[in-house]
Amino acid sequence: MKLSKYLLILTILLSFSSVLSAQEGNLTVEQALKQESIEGQFDIVIKKSGRYQEYKVIKQVWVNKLKANVADTLKTLEAKLKTTNQQITDQKTTIAGLEESLAKTNEDLASVTQQKDSLGFFGASVTKSSYKTIMWVIVAILLAMLGFFVYKFKNSNAVTVQAKKALAETEEEFEDHRRRSLEREQKVMRKLQDEINKQRKAGAK
Fold it and tell me: Which contacts qualify for 68-77: CB closer than 8 Å, 24 or more apart?
């Protein structure tokens, strides 16, 4: 009977201490949830949470704010991913057009080599060597443009991969944290219920 009373008093003191500790650090946690990165927010919430035996007791308002911040981060990443994918689609279309133009130019150039030295070019008569020079300049310009868009495409693709990876990691981290928090809460509730049942049995005696 005395042991049960001591356990009850100890449980109340621990709970009271956890509440006081959380209240003292509330301002810091609120600031962190507005300013820190997602990883920093998780760290500060875990650090400032109360403790019950080997478990952490986290305020519901902190969990809700952290959930909202993670959701906002996911929305931002998804928006960036959508924009990047649209840019990639546009660049693919541009590259395809440049490749088509380059292929046509190469065909024209091959045809020119089989013709006479004097050719008509936009209504003007030019020599074969001049015509070749003009065509190669055009080819060089198209190749430069193609190279530029290929470079931009690769960069955009790298950004997309990085954004997808960050999105997947954030989702996995949030899901893991939510699962662990739920497990901790269930264990604490079972412990408290067991203690209540013990107290009731002791009181009944």
Answer: 69/33, 69/38, 69/41, 70/38, 70/170, 70/174, 73/38, 73/170, 74/167, 74/170, 74/171, 77/163, 77/166, 77/167, 77/170
